[in-house]
Amino acid sequence: MGLRLNLVLGGTLCLIVIVAAVLAPWLTPLSPVMDADLMNAELPPSAEFWFGTDAQGRDVFTRILYGARVSLTVGIGSQLINTTIGLILGISAGYFGGWWDDLVNGLTNLMLSVPSLIFALAIMAVLGPGLSSLLIALGLTNWSWTCRIARSSTLSLKSQSYVQAAKTLGYSDFRIMLTQILPNIVGPVLVIATLGMGDAILAEAALSFLGLGIQPPQPSWGNMLTDARELIAIAPWVAIFPGLAIFMTVLGLNLFGDGLRDWLDPHMRTRPV
Amino acid sequence: MSGTRALLEVQDLQIDIVSAKHRHNVVENVSFTIDHGETFGLVGESGCGKSITALAMIGLLRSPLVISSGSIRFRDRELRGLPERELRKLRGNRIAMIFQEPMTALNPVSPVGRQIAEMFVLHQGATWHEAERKAVEALASVQVPAPEQRVKSYPHEMSGGMRQRIMIAIALACKPDLLIADEPTTALDVTVQAEILKLMKELCSARGTAVLMISHDLGVIAKMCRNVGIMYAGHLVEQRPVEAIFRSPSHPYTNGLLNSLPRLGSRGIHGRKRLQEITGVVPSISAFPAGCRFQPRCERASALCATTQPDQADLGDEGYVRCFHHG
Fold it and tell me: Which of A172, A175, A273 sits opposite B157 (nearest CB)?
């Protein structure tokens, strides 16, 4: 079997979002902020305004394209930070054990016991709204699962004969962690990272919805939903399309993560011998 | 460098399990030497301290196991107390090791060629490009067919015998002076076992690599080794050239081991003869007897054996035995 359905479907959805984000200025002639036109406010979807217009008469399609930039940046950026923190802490804790393991464990439990959104909220409150504080807030609060998985996988891998064999072959601790342990936990960690990307996009939407994320008039899928709150009865398209965009992206990421895990596992890959 | 000295000299090695409350001896008074290019066999049943002795030699004993006394000299250099960084340069490079389980001793997510190549990168500072080329040669040297294609294979795509060949290729990649083979063929079936042993013998003698062969299989030892040490409960009870051990075993434990082997055509007058077993079991580490450790199971034991540890008694054939009643 060649490419998997999950991988193709998820990859296509993700690709659509990436293309939308990167090519936004070429895909729409309008500006997401400046082209407000109160004469054309709250128009339903039409040939001119594909997804309709919002309360200020801005094109919802245009705003979704530009909003994809925020969502992607937040999703990928925060997960890069999360995964890096989780992997470094988890692998080193599992590998070295001792007081370091206890410390990391305590920290992980602390992170897990406080809802990460509340934690992110607190950080945002200190740093103030904006894209960079969103990245920091979401990047520092969601590494506990990666860390746990990395640590428990490392614990079981550590006793595998090939890790022991690597020691007898002169590998340093760092090299063992890098070449023997890391490649063996990439699968599960990647799945968590892509799932977490979906979470981060949702969290961005939530924080923006609460007014702490991306500030209007800059569009993000979250603050578009905030604006749409009052219009949901009279102009539902203003809420539906950003919601659909979030849904599609998160679904795409989850499918892609699943497919990627299968594809990365050499046992699942069949090649002619 | 004095080429006349032995490659490896282990002197009075003592290894203990140390916990906060207890200190139990695991290996005691173990001494042996291995010359350049020699194959030395270490025989004993499971748990007698063979593998621990081997791990001690490359500095990989981990708490609670500690080397309490003795010395391990490799190429005239004391390995005991050598810093980790220096030991790492030796491991895999000058002293390599292969294990009993070929099914799990290779990294499942890395192509075998890369695992071989890593040795050249690690110990010889080769570039990955060079190393991958050398890996093909290394695969060819262990007689893996179509090595150019095989370097890209993953371990799960190979049979046990093939994987053990890969392990040998990795271990011998840097042309080590000493190869520690810890029951290298135990997990393989008999025909593959013979092939692997033949391969090891050929490669090691071609490269002048000495081998420390750890096994509980006397057949393997007889085929491969020049000198043999018999271990029982952490003591090296008899050490002699291989022919001498099989012709005239001196220690009662060695005798028992040989008698417990089935032989072709070994029938008594009344048909089948019962195999002789050694009665009793190996004492647990926390309950080693004070004198000779084999004494509770020994037919020749006397009052002296229960209280005093026997010293080495020379046997005149470059070998010795630790027994008051050897014969």
Answer: A273
